[in-house]
Amino acid sequence: MKYLMLVCVDEHVEEDADPEPWITEMESRGIRQTGNRLQPIADSTTVRVRNGEVLIADGPFAETKEQIGGFDILECRDLDEAIEVAAKHPAATFGTLELRPFWSGA
Amino acid sequence: MTPDEAAATAFTEQRRRILATLIRTTGDWDLAEECVQDAFERALSRWPAEGVPRNPGAWLTTTARNRALDRLRRDANHATKLRRLAVETDDPNDELQLLFTCCHPALPLEARVALTLHTIAGLSTEQIAAALLVSSSTMAQRLSRAKRKIRNAAIPYRVPPPELLGERLPGVLAVIYLVFNEGYSGRQQLADEAIRLGRLLRHLMPTETEVRGLLALMLFQHSRARARADEHGDLIVLEEQDRSRWDTTLIAEGLTLLTGTGSPYQLQAEIAAGHSTARTAADTDWPRIVQLYERLGALVPSPVVALNHAVAVAMADGPAAALPLLDALDPTLTGYYLLPATRADLLRRLGRPAEAAAEYDRALALAPTEAERRFLSRRRRSVEEVVPPIVASVDRLRTRSVDDGHDGRTH
Predict the structure, then answer these.
(1) B84 and B53 within one domain
(2) Residue A75 distance to chain B (closest CA, Å)
(3) What's this model's pTM, rounded to 2 decimal places?
(4) Which among B61, B165, B254, B357 counts the fewest CB atoms within 10 Å?
């Protein structure tokens, strides 16, 4: 089962958390397929098409403090394994990790 | 036994096991439920003509399994499920795995309760909706959303491994106790189901201390079900209950489950056992109950435990000793009717009826059920009656003189 793990953190909180050991472990277990950190939300752009017109905006700036700061794609046996993997990520202690299963077509 | 009775007995005893096996082997909850239902319907139509099979459980299992095979064969996409279903047999762990899946922490709590009642206890969507006071369509949605999440998010169908069990078992016990408490205020069927689940879990995990503790706790509380309300459904408090109406079989069963290990459900069960074994209310060993509440409060600090502790202190050392404990609770338990109700009771016993009456009013405004309001009103009337008559008549005189003054006719 494939999961997208969204790493949501408060951008204004400086946390000294090195994800390298986690990445090494999860890649050696064949769980982490890929992933990356993202630039801050200030650098993101929103695109919408309404009535044939392309609407472009800065943002999105949501009300929540935590924003998506990175993502990982995981291949796990089941949700329990994905939870175990997420709980080991250093950001779990100060941010929030969201596990979203991939659409399976069913 | 008539064929109908045999089918009904088989349904009660075997449904859960057959369903659990089919869910495990097909991984499809809806399909499994339909096929089990179908097998029982076939039993009802065939057994009267063909006779009851020698092993009704095996007949039902085979019929349900064949039905599932038929259904899956029609759809080529299900080749994997079909292979598993064809080769796998019963596993004694199936029911336990199903219970842990229904209570997985990735599901919202209300869905865990609903799914457990539906899948393990076998209640219909309508029955659960009625018991939990939501509409049938809301309940149907809640159940199908939970089943969908189990499938799409790949919630595993298994008993968690030992390293996760300590973390997951309390959640399962909490769901069972929640079901029991839903049944406590009159919805008897839920209390019965919770006890059945408790016994099942105890049977499947005989050495788990807290499984025994929870079952014991429920048995002690349930042993008083007949004595807890009068013929109008009004509450009868513990000290006024007719102890000859307590169910001694349940109490005896509960006592065999106590392990003296001092874990949260065990401690609560020991407190309940303290009440259950006292021959009269006056015989209750209150100092020991105070002690047990202190240990429980140290383990699971909660304002409700602290409130019960205060009540026990009032019984052991007198109401005056307990009043300051209630005052300390005030900020944390706002809106909980038992706090003013308890204070009212202490003030009543201290001979301060006017203050007691005011606390009863506060409790009345917060009481959740009609039966509780009737109980509180009755208690409130009893303190009105002991308001010293001399004070009452002085008040009345004062009122009259004021009225008379306005009236201007007396002088």
Answers:
(1) yes
(2) 12
(3) 0.79
(4) B165
